[in-house]
Design brief:
The chain has helices spanning 3-29, 42-55, 58-61, 81-94, 133-144, 168-178, 185-200; strands at 64-69, 101-106, 120-126, 163-166, 207-208. With 215 residues, the protein is an alpha+beta fold. It has a five-stranded antiparallel sheet, with helices on both faces. Helix 1 crosses helix 2. The longest helix has 27 residues, at 3-29. It is elongated, with a radius of gyration of 21 Å. It starts with a helix and ends in a 7-residue tail after the last strand. 22% of the residues are buried.
Length: 215
Amino acid sequence: MSDQSIKESARLAALKKVYQSYFETLLRNGNFEDYSDLPEDVEALKRLKDMCNTTDPDLQDFTHVWLTVTPEEQHGYDKDPEKLAKFCKSWLDKSTMVEEYTFNIEQRSETLKGAGKGTHAHILITRKDGKSYAEYNQNIKRKFGPMHGTNFKFFGANKTGSTYYKGSDFAAKKIEYLNGTKEGKHKQLMVSVDRHWRDCHELQQIYKHTDICDP
């Protein structure tokens, strides 16, 4: 590789880092006043924002945040569903990012004998006061990231298998999911076991801040 190619590769890599660091700010306010020191890259930043709006409209227009919290064993939450429920509820009740929420605690076994395996929480949050994707993502990552350990990658990304920023139709389906309407025979078996398991641990079948989420 020539010296010129090496320099060009380094320049592009540096620009990529700049664009990534500005990504959330662009989504938050959509202006370029903070980038006056990079006039040659303003057009590229504008293109990046257009791309965000075109390919990821949910990050602009979402009405709800859906996240799954699956703790690793080093913090004990995986073996203590009561502790996990208390942790989630405490954050949801105190967070300035949250006003309305619905969540429950689940496990992954299809049999009563194996109940308790894979303890996790599903949480649905109603977007508050036009808070941005970036604000929620930062807040969620800061609160729940540590319990997943250093190998947990989901909260550092945009949309993943654990965190979604979606609209009201998506939210309505997730309310049904939280209340036990799931596709697939094995999923329905888990629903039955979940209910019995929650009763044994004196967990609420569903936690919520308001009654607007009733199916």
